């Protein structure tokens, strides 16, 4: 994992770029040649620039395609025993390597996305109920 310190000048440059062109076409220069950054990658870079422009911190980490239960539990924001129950109950697929369970990164990411969607939906339901009851 790598956390880079952003200088005030870099923060200002990011702010100016985001304000000037909220959806710029990004290019990269290499040994005199200029290359257009593909839109999908450009979206990722713009998200990073917006975070920097707002004074936020960006941390870059890499994960292997197969995770241990400890790492998978950290990624899901649950305890390892909770993850083991999820595996046992078939909520998330896993396979064994020897006596240890392993999970595919893509399965963990999908499970995390689904959990976040459920949490957001529950929060929206709560907000709607609160508005209906006039408890603002």
TrEMBL record:
Chain segments annotated as transmembrane: none
GO function terms (MF aspect): DNA binding
* A Pfam family this chain is assigned to: HTH_17
Q: InterPro entries, from UniProt? A: DNA-bd_dom_put_sf, HTH_17, SinI_DNA-bd
Helix-turn-helix domain residues are 67-110
Protein name, UniProt field:
Helix-turn-helix domain-containing protein
């Amino acid at each position: 994992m790598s956390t880079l310190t952003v200088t005030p000048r870099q923060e200002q440059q990011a702010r100016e770029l985001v304000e000037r062109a909220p959806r710029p076409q990004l290019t990269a220069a290499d040994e005199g040649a200029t290359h257009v950054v593909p839109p999908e990658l450009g979206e990722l870079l713009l998200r990073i620039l917006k975070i920097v422009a707002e004074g936020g911190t960006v941390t870059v980490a890499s994960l292997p395609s197969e995770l241990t239960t400890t790492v998978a539990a950290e990624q899901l924001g649950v305890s390892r025993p909770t993850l083991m129950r999820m595996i046992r109950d078939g909520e998330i697929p896993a396979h064994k390597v020897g006596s240890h369970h392993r999970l595919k990164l893509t399965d963990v990411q999908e499970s995390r996305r689904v959990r976040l969607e459920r949490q957001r939906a529950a929060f929206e339901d709560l907000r709607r109920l609160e508005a209906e009851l006039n408890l603002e």
